[in-house]
Design brief:
This protein has a five-stranded parallel sheet, with helices on both faces. It has helices spanning about 15-30, 45-55, 65-85, 100-110, 115-125, 140-145, 160-175, 190-205; strands spanning about 5-10, 35-40, 90-95, 130-135, 180-185. With about 210 residues, it is α/β, with parallel strands linked by helices. The chain is globular. It has one domain (about 5-205): 3-Layer(aba) Sandwich (Rossmann fold). It is built from eight helices and five strands. α1 (about 15-30) packs across α8 (about 190-205), α2 (about 45-55) runs antiparallel to α3 and α3 (about 65-85) packs parallel to α5. It starts with a strand and ends in a 5-residue tail after the last helix. The structure holds thymidine-5'-phosphate. Thymidine-5'-phosphate binds near residues 54, 100, 101, 104 and 155.
């Protein structure tokens, strides 16, 4: 039995974690076993890499180093957690996956997507999410939502950086419309949850929650 792989993408402050938790609770109540995880991160090695990547003290990190570290975290996470969970028939909900790399390292850091493509295939063992939700939000609204907390290295980037991230996400969604569903993240959380749940249940072949 093969599980289902669902990822959530969006700029900072788009509400991904909230939606993942709401979905996980609902799926658990319906009897599904879920793995709730995130990138960069997941298993201990990948969480170590996450700390390296997000540490605001590491301002000197090169875009190339950044890309390789995100990919290293992804390889460990995919091999150690995601693929075994899918093989066991679980629903895997992941906060960010490789679309983030194309948006942040590709568009925002201007690294060559021609290089990111094969690297991503290598780091994911050719794994592609069954479904991706892009929670789309104006950059100013997203940044206003995260302003209150201590910002990590990526969150500290300027508005133009986050605008490039957002635009790249939107073009990925146009290119890969079958996999990526765009949702207006300025809607109330409860309304977004209904949209997410409808889509997931139809993929699972469940007619009503
Ligand atoms: P988070 O704050 O949503 O947990 O994500 C951590 C940060 O890492 C966020 O600013 C986006 C960034 N990121 C990348 O730049 N490339 C990637 O491949 C991933 C997964 C995240």
């Amino acid at each position: 039995m093969q599980g289902l792989f669902i990822t959530f993408e969006g700029i900072e402050g788009s509400g991904k974690s909230t939606q993942m938790k709401l979905l996980a609770d609902k799926l658990a109540a319906l009897g599904y076993t879920c793995l709730l995880t995130r990138e960069p991160g997941g298993p201990p090695i990948a969480e170590h890499i996450r700390r390296l990547l997000l540490d605001p003290e590491h301002g000197e990190m090169l875009p190339e180093t950044e890309l390789l570290l995100y990919s290293a975290s992804r390889a460990q996470h995919t091999g150690e957690w995601i693929l075994p969970a899918l093989k066991a028939g679980k629903v895997v909900l992941c906060d960010r996956y490789y679309d983030s790399t194309f948006a942040y390292q590709g568009a925002a850091r201007s690294l060559d997507p021609g290089f990111i493509h094969p690297l991503t295939e290598f780091a994911t063992f050719h794994t592609v999410p069954d479904l991706t939700f892009l929670l789309d939000l104006e950059v100013e609204a997203g940044l206003a939502r995260i302003n209150a907390r201590q910002l990590d290295r990526l969150e500290q980037e300027d508005k133009a950086f986050h605008e490039r991230v957002r635009q790249q996400y939107l073009s990925l969604a146009l290119e890969q419309a079958l996999r990526i569903t765009v949702i207006d993240a300025s809607l109330p959380a409860a309304k977004i949850h209904v949209l997410v749940l409808d889509k997931v249940l139809s993929l699972l072949g469940v007619s009503h929650a």
